[in-house]
Amino acid sequence: MQLGICIAAILAVFEAVSASSQFHLSLVEKEDNGQVHYMVDWVTASTVNSSRLIVGTSADDLSSAVDGKRAGLVREAADEDVACWSALLSNLEPGSTIFYALESDATQQTTSSLDFDELSKSDSPTKSGIMNFTVPDGEITWAVFGDMGAPMQGQAAAVSLPALKEALSADGAYSGVLNIGDLSYELTGSNGQNYMNELEPITSKVPMMTTVGNHEYQYALSPSLAVQNYYRRFQGITLGAGAASGSASNEFYSFSSGLIHFVFINTEVYGDEAYAALQEDGTWKVDEAARKVAGTAQAKWLEYDLSHVKRSETPYVVMCGHRPPFKTPKALSEPGNRFAKEIVPLMSKYQVDLYLSGHEHTYLMFEASTFNGYNIPPIIVSGSSGNNEYIREEAELDIEGFEWKTLIPKYGYGYLTATKDAMEWQWGSAASDATNEPSSAMWKKEDEVSFPKQTISNVYTPGGSPVSEPVDVASEWASATSGSGAGTGSGSSTTGSTAQETTGSSASSSSSASPTSSAAPLSLNSVTYGVISLVVAMSL
């Protein structure tokens, strides 16, 4: 019987190390020398106390290791948690292919971040589940969608996902994803697990940039904790693009890619559902005062960010938010509409080229318009990649103050890319025409729009203020103590809070991107050797 217990312990060790990874890449920034930084997020079994990636430029030579920073736990099933981790891959050369995996032999060299200028040539450690991605060399084509849902929900949920997978694996049709909120309906429990598992063939190969939607906030309170789960699962954006852009957040942040400067905002500070926020005691509660604080901080940061964009280098500015302007929470003309007061003037002043959104479960395109003397850029609603609230027909839409140019009530998603003369947009259907019982289909182009480059007439004076001073993420990680950080998993720049290890609570702490503690790396060989030794001893 003792032998059986010990064998079970051995199996538990192997299970802990080989738990589903749910790899997710995100883009940090591009250096002046052309090199690029990526963040990698993943999960392990909750019992894993430290986790590392092994990385190299070939599958046969994963010769360097990089420590993960731990964000906290997420519950995926009854009494089953996973630990969330992030790590930086810095100084990646455009056109290079990077191979990576979770380390199963932690006896090799370790660094606090992986710098490919200093890639070690030591022997390759044991490895399994090797992933790879190629750093784009040139302009990125972005797949754009929101409101997908988790495939396990059936019916229309994630009906566009097969087309997205096929377009990437067979054609390499895109090299990045803009996922604009309402992720898995909801990002909690088995829905969150299924969503992250099913997207991994995409997110392990191309960066996916995200923000929250109303469904994340509708289920923010215990026991769902959807926003906390978002903070932890996407900690890499907080520590990467969030830190670099001065937001210290994964709800609103910015990054530049090729000719486009992307700005993500959290439109739930302008929503009508109850707004939940993390409290000092570590619990999530409805807190309308926090909504106002968050909106003010975001608006100040947004002006800071837009006023510092170098339009000579990134001539296009694209803003991404879950809600379209006419659903914030209602029309812009509604008294007290803060989106109209805080965001619209900034879009006009800094000549934003395009606004991408979801929320409405259909495809809509609006041409540039004006509101109270302010210019509003063209608006695209790409919120029909799947979900079980089904497609919105024209009669169900409330778009007061706007007139659509194109409405296609079908399931699908879009592609965005840029040239020196214009941004090019395509949208296509990815399911049968059946509104309530669709079946997946290959992507079929249904709309195409060109957005010419604007003549920028203003020389911007720096304004606004960051939430925290922007950091050089590569330098920050290089100087950090190696090891697993309890760290900054919350992504909540308005509270400065960080995630604890429990799934049900978080505690207030510093918003620094540096790890707050270090831990010895897990070695499968050493742990297994110890357990086997115990088996032998108990069997004698």
UniProtKB/TrEMBL annotation:
The EC number(s) given in the record are 3.1.3.2
* Region feature (Disordered): 111-130, 477-520
Q: Which residues form the signal peptide?
A: 1-19
Q: Is Hydrolase set as a keyword in this record?
A: yes
Name the enzyme's class.
hydrolase
User: What GO molecular-function term can you cite, just one?
Assistant: metal ion binding
What ranges does the record list as Low complexity composition bias? Answer: 491-520
- UniProt key word Glycoprotein: yes
- Which SUPFAM superfamilies does the record cross-reference, listed alphabetically? Metallo-dependent phosphatases (SSF56300), Purple acid phosphatase, N-terminal domain (SSF49363)
What this protein catalyses is: a phosphate monoester + H2O = an alcohol + phosphate
Stretches assigned to the Calcineurin-like phosphoesterase domain: 143-363
UniProt keywords (A-Z) are:
Glycoprotein, Hydrolase, Signal
- Pfam families annotated for this entry? Metallophos (PF00149)
Which superkingdom is the protein from?
Eukaryota
- Record family assignment: Belongs to the metallophosphoesterase superfamily. Purple acid phosphatase family.
Recorded protein name is Purple acid phosphatase
- Source organism per entry reads Phytophthora nicotianae P1569
